[in-house]
Please model this.
Amino acid sequence: MGILALTLAACAAPPPALPASQPATTMPSPRASETDIVGSSEATASQPPSLQALLPAEHDGVELHTFAVGEDILARLAADMDASRDQLMTAFASDHGSRFVQTYAIRLPGTPASALAAGWAAVGYPPDVSDVAVRDETIDGRPITVVHSPSASPRLGTFYLDSRGDTLIVVQAFDSDVASEVLASVP
Model:
């Protein structure tokens, strides 16, 4: 009986405090991108909204993943912009299921989204792809730049670029209807 009482007392005791030399840490929420932990998602006059807040959290009832994708494209874009990959601020929202879509929000301090869009159009597909066509469309009332390669789109999809001030939103999809739905859900 004494052992049972001692065991119960040990289970009810509060966990030991961290030593003063070990500060408590907090983990970012699972929706936060490691490359976009900027603080509050609230926009102020001096701070634009966080990149993750600009991307949809779900598409067609499926939660979108926020892990990094397209690092090869982003490295080419950084090089095209005469910047390092670390200078590009990025966030992601992707569904790699049957309705494949990858969505990027990209900023490069001091660079307008239109310049990022021109860079993406030049480097979105790998260097060995030579049949890239760029055209303008209107999707959900917004001007969108479509970057398409007939030879590479069956394996990589088509890119839909939405320039918003200093932020480039890129939707990469195989199906134009999926791209339109995702672009319409961007705040």
